[in-house]
Design a protein that fits this description.
Elements: E1 2-3, H1 6-18, E2 23-28, H2 29-33, H3 36-40, E3 52-59, E4 69-70, H4 77-97, E5 101-103, H5 115-121, E6 126-127, E7 133-134, E8 142-149, E9 152-153, H6 171-174, H7 187-201, E10 209-210, H8 214-217
Parallel strand pairs: 1-9
Antiparallel strand pairs: 2-3, 3-8, 4-10, 5-8, 6-7
Amino acid sequence: MQHPSKQTTALIVRQARSFGATLAGVTTAAALRQAPSYRVRPDMPRPPETGSILVLALIHDPAQPELDWWGVKGGTPGNLRLINIANRLVEWLGRELDIAARSLPYYVEKGGVFLKDAAVLAGLGHIGANNLVVTPQYGPCVRFRALFLDAGLAPTATRWSNPCADCHRPCLRACPQGSFQEGSYHRSSCMQQIDKNKADAQKNTPPLVKHCRACELSCPLGLPG
């Protein structure tokens, strides 16, 4: 099924926001298949060759750190909000536009997609120096979820200028594990902090995992005011 008009895409984006998404955008499944993360990880399952990916973003206000705490069934409170929005959209898309859709898992190996790549292709932001998607409106203080739509939609791709080009990049100095010491992101160092957060969580009841957000919260675009 084809819904190539920009008006249809705009309608879907508006509905996503009315259900609670802070931002939303669309890219084609074919474009996402060629994204950098899939070239680096060719072993990961790719999205179908046809159809569209609807990306949802939810602001993670620094004043509400609990939205990102792990320890409840189904993920973080923020993730549960995104799942609820996605499920409502699946029902609405089928009823109002006759578009078959499904909410995608968070993890790529379980059938999800690389969310940062999808968000950039959908025009929601730019990959920043902190290896996170930096949005013009909220910096990196957003969380993502995606849906697959069995329809060809007009994408919302927008080319944003690099938000880090004229920045003094406090994010690179904020990491407690020095994940950016060599000028680029090193996942192994970041994972050391994640493991520490998990170990610290076991000392509390309930064992809530409060992940580090140092590089995210140091971004000038994500700070209040």
